[in-house]
Amino acid sequence: MTSSQQLKIKLFADGADLDSILALYKNPSIQGFTTNPTLMRKAGISDYEQFGRKLLTLIPDRPISLEVFADDFETMEAQAYKIATWGSNVNIKIPVTNTKGEFTGPLIAKLAAAGITLNITAVMTVQQVEDISAVLSPDVPAIVSVFAGRIADTGVDPVPMMKESLKVLEARPKAELLWASPRELLNVFQADEIGTHIITATPDVLAKLKLVGKDLTEYSLDTVKMFYNDAVAAGFSI
Q: Which of 111, 108, 115, 110 is nearest to 144 (CA)?
């Protein structure tokens, strides 16, 4: 592939730094945004609602996934309904289980039946995808976020699992499979090749899109120059 413009997959940006998010919003290739409590904490965000409302106000025309953070299903449900009032373009992220390992299926089914657009997150097995598919509403859009990058971190090739997940979700045509936690730009092309609907990536991964199609001989020379210039700037001598 010689250009990122040839990609069929939807590119979402993952993060919580408002300046970075707004900079990526200017790029029409970025079709949506995701975040999570961990990214928000790293970005120094202390007021969840203020951040969420501001984000949805500044970006009203692309999907934005915001996650519930309660651990019991009743409070998760209340948070989901509240977040859903913040903007028409919000996707409510529900973890596949709570911290006790209890499947959130009943809550997913209830929210989906109420017409809430969901993003089921922290998914890492095909069985989980099957369980989620079984409780999603066929008439309501949803995202199923499989953390392919974390799967790869364990030494397991996520591609076969993502292919199988796509087959599972054929029964839910309004549900989209999202490749989460990519570690390198190659993952974008792997996800695109097998027909994954969405990939969400951090700004540092997305920045590498400008390298697509770069001549590798030229890139080699650039790398040699970088090493030389840094050695000179450091004042190294032997």
A: 108
